[in-house]
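Entries read sequence, tokenised fold; example below:

***
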Amino acid sequence: TVPAGYTFFLNRVNAYTTNNGNQYCLYRIWTRKYVSGVSTEQIVLTASFTPTYATQRVVPRAYAEKTDIQWQLNQSAAAPGSVQLEGILVSNAIV
């Protein structure tokens, strides 16, 4: 969850699986945002890959305060997988 008073800027994502390339693997970013007590869920991005997914954003993707974020992997066969991400958490306070 992005803390109150902050914005998270996502720069880079790498996802990996040990599937042999013949199996299905899906990378997904899922978010939930609460505004005035109303929950809104959104699939921000979905991408299939074998065996590596990598992206670097030219302009970082902003996630507002109080947004729940999940980076998810779904594979057609049981195999180890991981997601690595890089971003910056910035205070919204004006200095």
User: Anything to note?
Assistant: The chain has a mean pLDDT of 90.
